[in-house]
Amino acid sequence: MTDIDNLVKDLILEVDISKKKEHFLKIWQVAQDAGVYPASIHDFYIARGKGEFSGFTVPAINIRGLTYVLARAIIRVAKKHNAGAFIFEIAKSEMGYTDQRPVEYCGVCLAAAVKEGYKGPIFIQADHTQVNPKKYKESPNKEMDNLKTLIKEAVDSGFYNIDIDSSTLVDLTKTDKKEEQRLNYEACAELTKYIRSIEPEGITVSVGGEIGEVGSANSTPEELEAFMDGYEEYLGDDAGMSKVSVQTGTSHGGIVLPDGSIAKVKLDFDTLKILSELARVKHGMGGAVQHGASTLPDDAFGKFPEVETVEVHLATQFQNMIFESEAFPVELKKKIYSWLGENLSSEKKEGETEDQFIYKTRKKALGAFKNDLTNLSDEIHSKIGKELEDKFDFLFQKLKIQNTKELIDKYIKFVKVVPNVTSHAGEIDASGAD
């Protein structure tokens, strides 16, 4: 096992946060020496908004388990296709139930790039930094302060891409679109201002907003305009967002049928195209973002570049492939599924089948069994990694990000940052979207 492998294992398995940060700082330095560094994709997306290039969709990939194995597979595919426009991301909720704090996730992704001989910027993103509507109603200031603390921890750990999700505050009882979006755009702008106040010198953190909760009614141009008008007024002269997430018919994880399979979804690509163009032409952003897409049928992915979707978020299918791999130990799977029944039975809804329950909840066992997954044999890791590598290869081609490395290197320049990882958000709330 090489030194970088040992550093990664120490980082993942360490439970003391102070020691975990020490392992992270070692990996950060190794990465810098190897020409690998965390970066913001902001300037790249703004250039796209100006029409300087087009024709592909950036995959933002959530890795919930076996992060080092999957990140290395992604990097191998990136090298194969000379791709640079891809993002590693993890949602606030995922940080909680997978037991992956920002320093761990960023450190593992940087190490994966070093291990596979990649050079250049790596984009690490905090996905769905989501406002909890119940907590916000009880105490808006406390909820916002909690989010700011987590954002500070993430930025300090190399997350220079932050997706704010305050769409949970949209009030559909309002007849006026701007009033409907008011709490959403005010919260998003407040958090954007905070990010601008803490971002490292020389880096403009890429910020994303969201106008409609994934799984709800499809977004409209009127909603986007109402949100952006209010957001830009509130923000003033500070740099704004580089992209905006919209709802066009998907749901996180897909809709699970009684036998555990996923229902087919009809995505509204026409709406996605209209909203993406509006985001670019009128507001100077890279375009619109599609969430909850990994469980879509294979023939859907080629449509995203056609309608100029700037970014697509992919998560659940990779987790599914891990659990369903022939290489995944049968006894460990039994142990995990038994744990679900013992610890999460309260989440089983009336009329829900066992297959539906397991599919919905097994992601929440990834933190509890992180050590077991990390300590699987190299042979098992290799087999699962190869299966995922084939999937990533397919997606990179469908999303047309081959040969984007030179474009990335043109717009994204190295900024030397000495990370200050003293902040700590405490226990991370595992509820919310992912």
Describe it:
Helix content is 49%, strand content 11%. It has one domain (3-330, 371-411): Aldolase class I (TIM Barrel), CATH 3.20.20.70. The model has no long low-confidence stretch (mean pLDDT 93). It has an eight-stranded parallel β-barrel with strand order 2-3-4-5-6-7-8-9, surrounded by six helices. It is globular. Helix 12 (303-306) links the parallel strand 8 and strand 9 (311-314). By secondary structure, the chain is α/β, with parallel strands linked by helices. The chain is built from 18 helices and nine strands. The longest helix is centred in the middle third of the chain and has 22 residues, at 177-198. The protein has helices at residues 3-13, 17-33, 42-49, 67-80, 92-97, 102-115, 133-138, 140-156, 177-198, 221-235, 269-281, 303-306, 316-324, 330-343, 354-361, 370-374, 378-398, 405-411, and strands spanning 36-39, 58-62, 87-91, 120-130, 161-165, 206-210, 243-246, 288-290, 311-314.
Secondary structure elements and their pairing?
Elements: H1 3-13, H2 17-33, E1 36-39, H3 42-49, E2 58-62, H4 67-80, E3 87-91, H5 92-97, H6 102-115, E4 120-130, H7 133-138, H8 140-156, E5 161-165, H9 177-198, E6 206-210, H10 221-235, E7 243-246, H11 269-281, E8 288-290, H12 303-306, E9 311-314, H13 316-324, H14 330-343, H15 354-361, H16 370-374, H17 378-398, H18 405-411
Parallel strand pairs: 1-4, 2-3, 2-9, 3-4, 4-5, 5-6, 6-7, 7-8, 8-9
